[in-house]
Structure prediction request, 590 residues.
Amino acid sequence: MKDRAKWKKIVGWTLFLIAIGFFCLQMGFLFLHVRYQVEYIDNRIFYMINLLFVVFLAVALLVLLKLKNSHQVIIASIGVIFFLTNIVLLENSNQQIRNITSISPSLSKIFSVKENVQSGEAIYYRPYYGILARPKEVLENKINGNNKVKWLAKDIAVLTYKDKNGDIQQFVGTYGDRKGGLSYYYVGAEIHGVWQGDNVTVTSGPDGINVTVGNESELFSWENLEQFGTLAIVLKKDNEAVWTIALKENFEVHSDASKPTVGNISLYKATMEENQPIILNYIDSN
Amino acid sequence: MRNYLLILSVLMVTAIIVGTYYYQNLEHNYTLPQLNLRNNLQEETPNEIENTPLQPVNDDPISYSLQNDELTITYNKGKDWIKVPVDKNLLFNGEYQGNKQELIEGSYVLSEERLAFLYKQVGLNMKYTTDQGNTWQDSVIAEEFPELRFRKIAFLNDSFGYVIVSGDRTMSQEYSTVFLTFDSGKTWTKTEDPPTTRMIAFGSFVDEKTGFLSYGTINPEAPDVYVTQDGGKVWRHARLSIPAPYGKVFVQAEAPFIEEDHLAVLVNQGPNGDYEGGLVKGKFISKDNGLTWEFLQEVEPDEG
Prediction:
């Protein structure tokens, strides 16, 4: 009996401390939010933390305090009302700001775009400390409806979506570098040469990048390439994305052009259908 | 111990509720990043704005929009738009409190024959077109004019128009005057100044010679109307005979108008009137072209 009371106390206090932890997190967040425009990487996290806070607090109080039944009911009711309110707010929030969030397969990176449902305007967020994020960039085109996110490497995520003209667009979030972060480089120039994969050949040459699928060949001049970070380029035609080329993790960028090209690149078609990237191997320097 | 625990819990829950409420209200304006903006964002923004469809401010056949910080006119309920080449802010120069989503009442003319807009820089100007926006002209009404308050522009026919303006207000005294044009707005001449510095409430001309200025805006006790019958050379005090029961009830004359063979004016109860709900007006008529006015009847607001 004594043991039970002891355990109850330990559990109760632990829950209470966790609730305080959530409280401090939330207050800290609000401060950072107002002061530095920091947001949760997904807006729903705010409400989820509220939910966790109230659950832990309510259970802690019920366990720790010897309360009359009526008082227990009051605490439980307040908890339930708070809980339900936050569920409603959470739903509501996601109808105003749609979160496009994707965690990388290695669970180490988060891709986050928040879309204002009403205006269609979408903003790319850069994550900080796991769950926090700050706005980084406004997407060039407004998102219209469906979209999908694909990780082409552990640090490269591609968002494919249709814009308001019905054109397919691709936006790439990059979270790394292949040159130790020392300097900027051009992906198109780094992949100079001929690359081959399953029924596909990509040639990066002086005129631009040529993509051959089966018998069909298409040249994308340098003006029609958009680079994201130092890891990926989107090949465009008539203002519409056609392909994304990304440098795989094993790709090595070196300043010395005489050194052999090492690693793979990934070619990913811009389509709303479910598709897989094609891995290409280096064949020739042209 | 138990009480500390409860108090701490209540405090935390309260703080979270307040925080959530605060966060909830912030939500709308924090979607736009103000940090790390892409450099070309500034160039893109105007295009984005231009793409938002314009919405006429009302259902009138000729209407306008002030969206995108521009004044644009439509003759066909928003299908086609004509941009007015005038800086939007100049249209609101002077004493104005509002969100600049609608033009100041009386400061513009929208008709098939003419679009005209009063605006203020150093002087007082009018931007106008008589060919539905194909060509625009500027005319100078006054080379210089003090801080503008009341403004009204109107045209009675193709050539004759008037501008009634006031400005330079200090407390409840101000300068008010009238400009007339007889050549469709190309040139303007100032009339004699009316002999009062009270604040103007209404004004109008009923023909090229006869005009009225009605004063008293804050706590009027009786209508205070000046009339000219010679195109503004002389302003005389008009006499309104107010029957005893209506003394201090009908206190602010509106703009007179022509009715059958006489002139008529509605006199309202001013901002503080409470007779019959405060909206009933007194109708007065004048058979000597505005010098003296007799009470005719009470008018319900919607008849006026």
User: Anything to note?
Assistant: Chain A has a mean pLDDT of 88.
